Amino acid sequence: MFNYSKKASILVAASIFAAGGSLVAAPSAHAAIESNVVANDIAWTNTSAPAAPSNVQARAGSKQVVLTWAPVQGAASYDVRRYDVVNNTYDSVAANTYTVHTTGVTEAVYADTSVMNGKVYGYVVNAVYGDGQISQMSMPVVAAPMAQSGSVAQSLIVQSSSPSGSTSGAIRPMINIMNTGSEDVNLSDIRVRYYFTGGKGLTAKNVSMGNVGFGANNVEPYIVNMEQPQTGADSYLELRFNAEAGIIPAGGETNDMSFTIQRSGGSAAPDYSSNSSTTMSDNNHIVLYYQGAPVWGQDPGVTEE
Q1: In the structure, what pLDDT confidence band is assigned to residue 128 with cuts at 50, 70 and 90?
Q2: Edge-to-edge, what's the strand order for the sheet holding 286-290?
Q3: CB neighbours (10 Å) of residue 244?
Q4: What is the dotted CATH code of the domain comprising 150-296?
Q5: Which element (helix H / strand E) includes 151?
Q6: pLDDT higher than 80, residue 43
Q7: How many Å apart are CA 53 and CA 78, to the nearest integer?
Q8: What's the CATH superfamily of 6-143?
């Protein structure tokens, strides 16, 4: 089915955690319909099935793991299977006797909040089509939930400014993340949410990154619409950072990062996360997540679709 060694892929990923590493931070995400512990029903040899979901990533936080993957065209939903990884190794996903099988995941993101800190978990994902056809299984990924460092969580600050201004058709803020603590912080453990209006129907294609000192290609933008719009917010832009983005050193900062959101039309009122100042200042209407938990800012109190 795959031209890779399942054992090798898991051992390499597990070794990251054994060395104290982390994949990336975990946000809140859509819940699935059903989770049950069942006998392992994995099928690795169904080569006639449609291709597996690609770019599956496991992002560990405290007592949670978030999986993301590339959306599969035509998929009605997705299945997620979770396996315990014993001693950071196993021969293959299929070697596990039991799995936590979650069905009915309707978006290309799934939050597993039934995990425990200090354990290592393996996951595979498959797509389910409207006619009931099931895709091949994805490459397995692993994640190790860990308690977040209180000192780090309390040391992160988000600033923003709007030197270029924003219009009903475009948002052009600049943000800066400061690390006031004594420990270096991996940018891959951080996610930032900027709340705005006029986001319905927008995708990452409507976002362009501008000046980013560590490389715009190391920032992944995602736009999420909200179920209950609030004053100044019907959507948010979430900025994720890959491992190549590097660190924010102790006492350091990212320096100004600029981006533009092209929208169809925003509210006449200021966007929730906007800051009209032309100079950088603290902005607690931009929310920062560290290892899956919000540690800076106040969201508008909405729920996700």
Answers
A1: very high
A2: 219-230, 233-241, 190-196, 286-290, 293-296
A3: 11
A4: 2.60.40.710
A5: helix 150-153
A6: no
A7: 9
A8: Immunoglobulins (2.60.40.10)
Whole-number Å distance between alpha carbons of 144 and 62: 9
Domain boundaries, the chain: 6-143, 150-296
Do the first three CATH levels of 6-143 and 150-296 match, i.e. the same topology?
A: yes
Residue 92 pLDDT class (50, 70, 90 cuts):
low
Of the candidates 200, 209, 159, the one whose C-alpha atom is nearest the C-alpha of residue 179 is 159
According to the model, what pLDDT value does residue 24 have? Answer: 31
DSSP 8-73: HHHHHHHHHHHTT------------SEEEEEE----S--TTSPPPP-S-EEEEETTEEEEE-PPPT
**How many other CB atoms sit within 10 Å of the CB of residue 240?**
22
**pTM of the entire predicted model:** 0.55
- Alpha-carbon distance of 84 to 123, in angstroms, equals 9
Instruction: Write down how long the chain is.
Output: 305
In the three-class reduction of DSSP (H, G, I as helix; E, B as strand; rest coil), residue 5 is classed as coil
Confidence of residue 72 (pLDDT cuts 50, 70, 90): very high
On whether the CB atoms of residues 194 and 237 are closer than 8 A, the answer is yes
Q: Tell whether the model's pLDDT for residue 123 goes beyond 60.
A: yes
pLDDT in tens, 14-27: 333 333 333 332 22
Mean pLDDT of the chain: 80
